[in-house]
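Hey L., structure's done. Input below.
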Amino acid sequence: MYINAISHYLPSTIVGNGHYTRLNGLSDDWIFRRSGIRQRTRATDGENTNTMAIDAITPLIGKLPYQIADVDLIVGATYTPYDTVGTLAHAIQGHFNIPRAAAVTITSACSSFVNAVEIVEGYFATGKATKALVIASEHNLAYTDDTDQVSGHLWGDGAGCIFVSAGRYSSEDIEIVDVHTSGLGHIGKGVSGVYLRPSNGGLTMPHGRDIFMHACNFMATEAQDIVEKNRYILDDVDYLVPHQANARIIDHVAKTLGVDNSKVISNIEDTGNTGCASTVICLSQNWERFMKDDLILVTVFGGGYSSGSMLLRK
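Output:
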């Protein structure tokens, strides 16, 4: 599989840590030391999960090696949907008039983007599709209580997308060497570690320590396993793109893997935790820096729990 094009969208509204100092007394230093976040992107009135996804895709229209109408699979990824019936994938299909595509939206918390890519792999392997659009979009603000001193300050909004083909179209395409995900609902606090229950408190993180411990462990394990499975060593990795949940988790994973900080791509300081969109946003922001033969390692962990990894080769 090959990534033919990538793009992202971040809302223009920026909320700095000072907002939470005024709201509930959390200082900029306290928030930054615990999370690595200085500010976060927030959707404005009139923006939602679907509109941000559309804004992420729009810049690529006319720049694809095929017509967007030729896409035969759309996989949406989100845990913060605008509509659970007319899903993210269906909204994209309708907006861009993609008539022959299968459309499905999935959620596995913050690992959903990698899960979506693995679904594409399955469709391609069975010959049911050859060109796919994967769109990850999160509107955390819609489900967050800013007064929640545990996690209200962590979340950001944003979207990112990739167009994927079964075969290579140009030398600029990036190969998806491998992708893997795991369901981990049986470990630790499982489904109660972090949850989003619209009728019961919204997006809440009652067991942050449990999440931290398992995220550090499984993000490192997923990364190690996919590298070794494909007969590389970690020294071969040119860039590590971890899920942007917490700077301390990112640092711990990099140290566990022995990956130098200069190889770690992160945007959490400026965007907050943008959920499952975080890694594709990071990839899109840094797409031009990737050179021929670069090996790019993506690793994620989601509440619920779930984990995943993806290995890319320029």
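The chain has a mean pLDDT of 95. The two ends are 12 Å apart (CA to CA).

-- N.
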